[in-house]
Structure formats: structure tokens, C-alpha cells
Amino acid sequence: MKEGIKHICLTEDDPDDYYFFSEVLDELNGDVKLTWFQTCEDLLEYLKAGDNLPCLIVLDLNMPKMDGQTCLVSIKEELALHHIPVIILSTAGYPTTIDQA
């Protein structure tokens, strides 16, 4: 990846949300590489490979199979990954869900 280009991993199962997110990034700053994962399992597999780690992870809590909360715990338990900032993306409005994230 070229120097100066930021890499963001988006984990989101809804293609419409991915499209919206990528369009906003393009409008704000064209120097961002966005890698999209539709499952937490795919994200974790990519991260554990250690190639081209992102500077930021955007993670949906409401995911199929492994939920975003479990995925977040897995990321933060991995010594090579725990330094990567994670932004939680969710439509959940429950205070307990927000506090847990």
C-alpha cells in the first residue's frame, strides 16, 4: 500500500451500509483503503494473518454467526491486534448493549 494511504476494515453484513460508508469515505478523503468483511470470522482470519493491518476497525455489533461483541473481545485479547482502535457501529439503543461495547 502506498505511503500516506490509511487502511480501514469495515465489518458489516449489510451491503447497503457498506456502500453508504464507502461513499462517505470517498467524499471525505480519497486516500483511504477500505476492506469490507461480511462476517466477524472473516475479519479475524484476515487480522490474524498479520498482512496489512488496518489503522482502524469499524465493527457492527449485530452480525450473523459471531456477534460483534464477541469479535471485539477476540481482537482486544490478541497482543498483535489490541492496539488497533475499534469503532462500534450499531442500531442497538439498549443502554446495557452500549455500555458493554
From TrEMBL:
Keywords in alphabetical order: Phosphoprotein
Residue numbers of 4-aspartylphosphate PTMs: 60
Pfam families cross-referenced by the UniProt entry: Response_reg
Start and end residues of each Response regulatory domain: 7-101
Source organism superkingdom: Bacteria
Keyword Plastid belongs to the record: no
InterPro entries for this protein: CheY-like_superfamily (IPR011006), Sig_transdc_resp-reg_receiver (IPR001789), TCS_response_regulator (IPR052893)
PANTHER family named among the record's database cross-references: RESPONSE REGULATOR RCP1, RESPONSE REGULATOR RCP1-RELATED
This protein's name: Response regulatory domain-containing protein
Lineage, broadest ranks: Bacteria, Pseudomonadati, Bacteroidota, Chitinophagia, Chitinophagales
